[in-house]
Design a protein that fits this description.
Length: about 140
């Protein structure tokens, strides 16, 4: 007696519950880790009563920390190499604004020396970042 072949039936339904669980898990992981990805140099800026700047183009950011560490676009640079490093970043970008942020405890002479080296490298469009003045 010949064997009868049974037809196999395939279930082509997709179980969406598992996929939704994975998507929500990835969303939660992204929401938790996204704020941790922001980078910057911590600087305690002085307060001033000045208007906010609206800039539509790229800028070069120079930061000076309380420990007199200098950063060009978040990259640490020693003072003795600052002018050369700044020239390398600034070359062919003469219309690019330069924003300088310095901790309020940075010695004035050190701050002026950094500004002088920026100007020696050809930087003339300088802006100084401050915190808004607190009105009591």
């Amino acid at each position: 007696m010949p064997r009868k072949r049974r037809k196999r039936e395939f279930d082509s339904n997709v179980n969406l519950t598992n996929m939704i669980d994975v998507v929500f898990t990835l969303l939660i992981i992204f929401m938790i880790t996204a704020p941790m990805l922001t980078q910057g140099v911590q600087v305690n800026l002085p307060n001033a009563n000045a208007a906010n700047l609206e800039i539509d183009q790229s800028v070069i950011e120079v930061s000076i920390t309380r420990e007199n560490e200098i950063f060009i676009d978040r990259n640490p640079v020693p003072l003795n190499r600052f002018e050369a490093e700044f020239r390398a970043v600034f070359q062919n970008r003469f219309d690019t604004p330069i924003f300088v942020s310095a901790d309020r405890e940075v010695p004035y002479g050190f701050f002026v020396r950094v500004i002088s080296e920026i100007q020696n490298a050809g930087g003339v469009r300088l802006g100084f970042l401050t915190e808004p003045l607190e009105i009591e």
